[in-house]
Amino acid sequence: MTPTSPSIPRDWTTYLCDSLEKIFPDTKPRPLPEAFTFSTWRGGRVSLQVAILPPDVTTGAVVPHPPEGLLPGVVTTPRTGAGITAKVSSVDLVPARFLAFENHDDNYLRDDAGLWPDPLRPLGDGGATKVFVGQWQAVWIDFIVTADAPLGRQSVEIALATSTGQDLGSHTVSLDIHALDLAPLSIPVTQWMHCDCIAQYYGIEPFSGAFWTSVEAYAKAAAEIGITSLLAPVWTPVLDTAVGAQRLTCQLLGIAADAQGHYDFDFSLLRRWLGIMHDAGLQQIEIAHFFTQWGAEATPPIYVTRNGATTREFGWDVPATDPSYRKLLEQLVPALREVLDAEWGLDRVIFHISDEPTAAMAPTYRAAKNVVADLLDGCTIVDAMSAFSLFEEGIVDTPVVATNHAAPFIEAGVDNMWLYYCVGQNRDVANRFFAMPPSRNRVFGSQLFVTKAAGFLHWGFNFYNTYLSKRALDPFLEPDAGGAFPAGDPFIVYPGPDYTVWHSTRGMVFGEALEDLRLMQALEERKGREAVLDLIDPERTMSLSHYPTDPVFYLDLRNALVAALAA
């Protein structure tokens, strides 16, 4: 609670903040730098926040309460000009208990359990943000610049009023719009969408009408923040699953077998999935892993129909090298490749062997890879791992390396190295945990450029389960996977009502990081790599563990990148 002097009543307090400020209910936030202008472009997006502190309420006062309760809500109305639209969201609070490991570094905001600002609840036209006595509340505004917006500076007024009609004044935002010719990101940015989590949260059947509606919403939300690919459950993924257990079946592929061992494949659901991804604007398709996680010792749960009955014929009880699995793959993989090539383009498809093998798992990973390698000849195969020996010995073709283990790969000049981070990348490196400052999320676009990473992967677009998927959960109540991972690691979007998707502040900031990277790639194409480094890392000291922490650095960097491209 924010205290005030008993002799000086506090009126409504509002001011602007940038997107790199977490507005806690109990702390006065950092304001947007004075007279700041946001440089953007046709097709770009500018995100900022309005911080609101209601007036003090006298204890025991008899006042006519508004319908919302003790205090009226606040209606935020952006008055945009030609070529600019606005989306207004309330930054809601969610409870979180596990925020950081005890030996965390100093670049965390706080590590105590409490309420954290993260979900962005869309307000719609005239929607009011609920406020509470003595607490700061944030409103998030996305300004979207259309492709035909007038060029030059525009001032946008943000009017504020209570839901009871009291005028709370306004703020003015300055946008400087340019015409930039930006290509899509040149590297894949893929995240794992967990279809069982969608079905379980809403209580719907996989591949029902409601399920497909939700998949469309999730794909669109991914594209809105720059993600280029989502994991496709051609068969039910064996990820974050206890040994011997199985997650809710979500298998796009229909398989029928006869007594002679011939398989027929039904790709209709996969084709529908590919169409949704295409319509959402995604660039790549990622196929579920061919073998189990952490060792590649077994096969995924694959269901086959024989004589009208559909049963599981593969899974934990079928070893990776079982001849029956090879027999299936010999027929499946060529047919799958043909469909993917025709519907999508095989050069934009990402395959996996098994997730996160260690050096000790090299024999089983190699054996599993040999089962399918010849069938995937010429395809892109990537896997998350950190042991340099797996790459050095040719066991893993394209390494997806944890950011805190990337140094040997960078020093060796591995030009096809991807990066990833998850729960283990909790010291010094970038990540998106609740407790980390948003600048630690935003820097990652610059780091992808500096390291010349060939791609990025994250395991948790919408993981709404506990560790090893032993229980489904509500992400609004357990954002730490039941206490297994620091809050924010398992997901960056929330399930909204009526099969919609709510963004998070962290997801929007990650999207800004990817837009930074997109600008860097465009500038490199025009003026060379050194011109970009002169802006983002003039002293040539930036690394995955050393980077600017001042949020204003990233606001100024965005403007500098736009200016360099517009010159």
Tell me about this structure:
With 567 residues, the protein is of the alpha/beta class. It is 24% helix and 24% strand. The protein has helices spanning 195-202, 209-224, 268-280, 323-343, 362-372, 388-392, 407-411, 438-442, 444-450, 505-527, 529-536, 551-566; strands at residues 13-18, 37-41, 45-53, 74-79, 84-96, 114-122, 128-129, 137-145, 152-162, 167-178, 189-191, 229-232, 254-257, 263-266, 284-287, 302-306, 309-314, 349-351, 380-385, 398-402, 418-420, 456-458, 493-495, 501-503. The strands form 6 sheets. It has an 8-stranded parallel barrel. It has a 5-stranded antiparallel sheet with strand order 1-3-8-5-6, covered by helices on one side. The longest helix has 23 residues, at 505-527. It is globular, with a radius of gyration of 25 Å.
SSE layout:
Layout: E1 13-18, E2 37-41, E3 45-53, E4 74-79, E5 84-96, E6 114-122, E7 128-129, E8 137-145, E9 152-162, E10 167-178, E11 189-191, H1 195-202, H2 209-224, E12 229-232, E13 254-257, E14 263-266, H3 268-280, E15 284-287, E16 302-306, E17 309-314, H4 323-343, E18 349-351, H5 362-372, E19 380-385, H6 388-392, E20 398-402, H7 407-411, E21 418-420, H8 438-442, H9 444-450, E22 456-458, E23 493-495, E24 501-503, H10 505-527, H11 529-536, H12 551-566
Parallel strand pairs: 2-10, 11-12, 11-22, 12-15, 15-18, 18-19, 19-20, 20-21, 21-22
Antiparallel strand pairs: 1-3, 3-8, 4-7, 4-9, 5-6, 5-8, 9-10, 13-14, 16-17, 23-24
Helix pairs in contact: 2-3, 9-10, 10-11, 10-12
